[in-house]
């Protein structure tokens, strides 16, 4: 047997319970077994006699995690402790990211876990506004812990009976909320909104040109897709990946609020047809990434019906508003869509990842993706195999994303999600009102979602006349403030340019922990950091 | 304020700490706040005064989960408690899967969690052999719990600094193990082997015909892909999705062990060229799904070089053998591949999901997928933005799959993975030797991986002469035994037909908990259940 790592190392990793070799031997000790196998085996598994140290290890992990959760919600802690890549790579106070051939002790593993959290970003912190997905719902977190403990796969009812049914019932509920009669249709949870959007393009193509599945894109005429110039870049990624080509994705003009102008869609459809191309797919966004704009779905649906095009609604960000009686009108017409992307992991505060694509017509998802793998989807199983979902997916194995969402829905009820949505929109109204007339702030638009976009102009720039110099200098303000924010670790908010607009802040509110005082803090922090720029 | 659910309901959910309204109010109570908001808020978050009940809830969840882990490894418990879909949908002993508008109590949430586990499948049970992914590594599980608590997204260094670096270092280590000089190249963790394989086809297309990204598949000649008739169906799914068409995926003949016959590849390449098509991509499988066959990579690589084709190695299942000095020769030539799929969540026992695609040439992954979204990948950030990985992906948001793997690697060292792999292969050799001459058992082939495929013939069929009747009856044996196995819940193993071979059992060993006694149990269970068929 190899001499390193020594059996002693393994022993010392496992604590006192394992010091007696005979105690640690698993049931099979017949042949060819060496000490390393035995102790490694004990390390891996709570075998009968190794149970206690293993459980002790898990409980120490839980201690680390619950401390982290407590601190995450404590406003006196930082959102992050920023370090540059080279600093972390060089090893912060003994935190060594490199992998080695020899095992570490379990004590060191616990230290690694603490360090991993220490140098990370607290996305659940009440002052973390950097992404569309923020917050840390405790029931959702419990759901994720259970999911990883169950460690199974969504592809068959056989090995995920409960989760498969939960997914089916939840998707039906979502379709009812969209407004499809009796919640009929189909759908699947996918690894994020980009993949959900990709599904929609694939299914649309299968609906109109099913022969592409077998013969490829050359079997179809030149197909054209349409989406807003403000839409998410995943539509462009799908056009490239699926073989349409990004040039065949036509970008639509928007109004001041970032909403698609329906007349522009119709004009571009007609233009494409005149060139002999086939307009096939329109994506209407419900809640654009930067502006939070809602495209006018009904007017777009009219055009889609007139020209026989597939209507997809990308509600990755705005779909959550369907849960609110007060705000769901912003998605009026969504029931006319052929497919909808809706990410509970964004506006509804479900932990990452949780994204659904919903399809109005049953059968398309399977027709499009089915390859009938014999080793997984045996037709001669003893149960009703229509519950096996794997052949609908472009994936084979599929992570269980449903449980945390289902559990949160149980815990909150539909009304709980509604309250959360309404509260976030109230907070964004509060922010808008707070800064629309505040000195040094300028709004980019008057929006409909929790996106509030604004420029902060430091005193030194305020007297400059409009023009290139002012624009160039203003363009540098947001990145500078953001960098200082991250260095000081007090709060985080996104920024970007858009079209001909120089860098501005994009505030988004989806964090259930956020209150008005956090909004106040953010604004004062921007003023504090930016005052002398 | 709405009257239902009453504030009292919310109060009663939260236990004694919350009975005093004033205690529960979060810091912001200024305006427009109603009781529902307050108590729902407390439910969601461990705000200062709601901290204790929330922590209590999390600890009760942990109690449920650790009990589940204990039982999972206890051979006296069942692998599953099988029920048909309609039974679970009707509600088992009060386990109600339906979602409702009103919230449930946290006590009921705990009951739901227990029921979810009760009616699920214990994929970590030492007698669960049903899938390529089995087992429950405790360090990996701890890693998943931490990952969900950190609840962040891989797309930028900004919000996942530690995880992004861990991914980078781990991918480099994997490339070193593949054998690429200095571990150079690129790669990404994706949501499963099917998506990793899809990446490989996309990248190959981008390498040879970059204009497809902008102009679509019609800009390229007719492209042809090659893969084994035994390869995973994800290659076919990719051909359909990416616009090649499944007819342009040519299936290659295999030998008795299920390995691609290189001469057949060359003949089919020549045939395709004669038709004017362009052979572009060859997938060689390292560890096929059913047979566990390793295609001869070196001979295939010779042909790929000769005809200028991309060589992908799908090592989703067999990639783990690269960690074993004893078994890695089965992948000889893998260093000549242009890309490799390797799923640590299969043979290496990492919790689901954990799949990597590795690419030899740097720059292709970004070139192929980059769309430069301004709101996420700002060029004017304060840190080195080459660490932002999001624009390499077809996803936007991307789940953190790296941490559990990194943590397991730390805990085991490379040697720990090697021991695990060697042990699994030893166990499969034990199984093979055990049944190759056993009455009633017939081997399908003599394999190289942990896949052991065999027929069990009940006594009543043994005297039947070879022929259609025997074949038809034998075809029904495995499904019947499997059904009885699931009803009794004692063990689980897969079965399927393959080509002209009727249903046979496919035993696979990746579960670190499995021992020889579990193998013995499986065989005796098959005999017990199948004896009177």
UniProtKB/TrEMBL annotation, chains A, B:
Homodimer. The modification N6-(pyridoxal phosphate)lysine is found at residue 346. This is Glutamate decarboxylase 1. Belongs to the group II decarboxylase family. The gene is LOC116048647. Catalyzes the synthesis of the inhibitory neurotransmitter gamma-aminobutyric acid (GABA) with pyridoxal 5'-phosphate as cofactor. It comes from Sander lucioperca. Its EC number is 4.1.1.15. One of its GO terms (biological process) is gamma-aminobutyric acid biosynthetic process. It catalyses: L-glutamate + H(+) = 4-aminobutanoate + CO2. Keywords: Decarboxylase, Lyase, Neurotransmitter biosynthesis, Phosphoprotein, Pyridoxal phosphate. SUPFAM superfamilies: PLP-dependent transferases.
